[in-house]
Amino acid sequence: MLTAKGANIVMVCRSAERSESARSALTQNGAGSVDVIEMDLSDLSSVRSAADTLRSRISKIDGLVNNAGIMNTPEGKTKDGFELQLGTNHLGPFLWTGLLIDLVEAAGGRVVVVTSAYHKNGQINIKNLMLTSEYTPSTAYDQSKLANLMFAIDLDRRLKAAGSPASCMVCHPGFASTSLQDASTGLSGFFIKQILNRFVAQPAEAGAVPMVLAAAAAEAQPGGFYGPQKGGELRGPVSDATAGEQALDEVMQARLWAESERLVEFEWKPL
In the chain, pLDDT over 70 holds for what percent of residues? Predict the structure, then answer.
């Protein structure tokens, strides 16, 4: 959608082979350029290296879209020792955004954080974020997606308070049929892959609409939250999404922000 409008895209991807395939398809889709940088969100050294590479190629970012993630995986750890889903879905993007926020500000641009409707099932276990002895695939996923939304809300508030030219929007794709669900395990994984993907999920193209709206549409508002409106916000036309009550807890947002800074060993510039 973006390349068709002439946007210049930098895809930041874990797999060189898959990213090159996607790049080749996109270059045939429009007039905009398509570049690729390799990055593994589950490895903070990779995040820092990718940020350095990106900074060497561009001087501003109109839309920084944090879309990559994993879902309902078996228990595991990132290279840095974090619970795998929280580390990949929240801590990696938290550091990535902090390293690049000045380039977003240089463009008066937007940070777009992608969460999930499943954030409403989540709780932030601030005393045990890594869910030691409490892990289930869905508990970890829901916590990571709640962390995404809380980060986005807090970031936009901080940007506004600082008088920054940048803003933050948040969105979720509803339930889109993509390879995201392939790693889901157990009964919930079976239900997701065999039932929801077949009979409920909308096409990936439809799932992209909220992200494109948040990243580039004139009608998107700073601090806005966008997602599908039908089927319990799983599919359909896109408009304002609803945030779970726990996502609006400003005290917990601040605690999550401070703990995230400590874990990734990065202190955001004053916001």
Answer: 92
Q: Within a domain: residue 95?
A: yes
Q: Is residue 118 part of a domain?
A: yes
Residue 184: which domain range? Answer: 59-264
Does 39 fall in a domain? no
Is residue 98 predicted with pLDDT exceeding 60? yes
Residue 36: which of 63, 11, 66 has the closest Cα?
11
- pTM score: 0.91
Backbone angles phi, psi at 145, to 5 degrees: -75, -30
Residues 6+ apart with CB under 8 A from 133: none
Beta bridge partners of 169: 112
CA angle 12, 90, 34 (to 5 degrees): 15
Question: How many domains does the chain fold into?
Answer: 1
pLDDT in tens, 9-20: 999 999 888 888
* Residues designated as active site: 141
In this structure, the number of other CB atoms found within 10 A of the CB of residue 5 comes to 11
Contact residues for 141 (Cβ-Cβ < 8 A; gap 6+)? 71, 72, 85, 89, 116, 118
Query: Does 174 reside within a domain?
Result: yes
CATH of the domain at 211: 3.40.50.720
